[in-house]
Fold this protein.
Amino acid sequence: MSSVLGMIFTLGFATQVLRIAVPYALAAMGGAVTERSGVVDLALEAKLLFGAFTAAAVGHATGSAYLGVLGGMAAGLLVAAVQIGCSLWLGADQVIVGVALNVLALGGTRFLLQLLFGEGANSPPSPSFGSSVVGNPIVWLTIVATIAVPFALRRTRWGVRLRAAGDRPDALVAVGVSPLRARLAAGLVGGALAGAGGAQLSLAVGGFSADMSSGRGYIALAMVILSGWRPAWAVLACLGVAFAESLNILFQVTNVEISHELAALLPYLTTLAVLVIAGGARRPPPRSLGQV
């Protein structure tokens, strides 16, 4: 066990935690932005999955991982546009829309794999950022977004309107601003962030695998709720989940005497434990969350 502790306090382990945290953190920030505007964002899993697929497909087609990142962000933005359109303009139930998009992503990405590549489980190899942290633009995007998103929510006109759309949409109407437009803008930004998180999943390993999001969108949403819809705090919570996932990998590599099934559950057990412990202290949701 002492050798395991020695491996935890290393630069390599820290960089692994950071790489694993990126998809969670970007999805959580995207979810926080969308939900602060008053839209329930259960579609984070779909944004991650479509973002991962598109990033790998664009990267394979163009030979550029950087264009793959843009493709992943565009895919997340498109999913968000569909989500906002169905929820707000068509008046569909926001929870049902989110669940439907997640189910569509599970089957849709497999269909697209078969359609484009003749393979239902994996895409052809694509350019990859590999295990690099310094040379990975998605990592830097995450760091910049962790600082910029909370600042924008508090200090910019866009952020004030976004928060008003989630808490007091009637106040926006009174000054001649459309809450629907504020929510659309928030949803598109949130979708692009989540799509970039999906791009990290596929561009870190050089290809897309079916269902490779593996529930990360749901965990990210749990972190959004835990953090009281505060993006920076959500990122910190995601770092805790990434630490548990990295610990699981370390246990498997070092053959620590612990059940592999239990080790694989560490990220989910960590999420559940933190929610139970901190649940009573969390802030209330935006007052208009889920309302048209």
Q: What stands out?
A: DSSP finds 13 helices and no strands in the chain. The chain has one domain: 2-281.
